[in-house]
Amino acid sequence: MQKLRKGDEVIVIAGRDKGKRGTIAARVDDAHVMVDGINVVKKHARPNPMKGITGGIVEKTMPIDQSNVMLFNPATGKGDRVGFKVLEDGTKVRVYRSNGEQVKA
User: Which residues contact 87 (CB under 8 A, 6 or more apart)?
Assistant: First the structure.
C-alpha cells in the first residue's frame, strides 16, 4: 500500500515550488509522482503534422520525487506524515501521524 496515491492533496516541502499545494495526477514509478501545477517546465516541441503537434514552446508538468511532497492535512492546515492502522474488521487504512485521523480517500 502506497502512502501517497492518485487524487491525494499534497504540499511541496522542498524545491523551487516549496509551499505550493496540488493534487496527485499520477504515479510515474515507486519514487516519483505527477502533481497538477507543480514542477511545470517550458519545453521546445518540434512540429509533427502526423500527430497534429503544432510545435513551439509548450508548458509541461514533470514528475517530482515523492520525498519532496507531504500529504496535506486539512485539520491542521499543514503537511503531515502518514502511517498505517489495521481496523477491527482487518482492513488496512492510512492515518495522519499528528492526530491519528483516517485519511479521506
Answer: 93
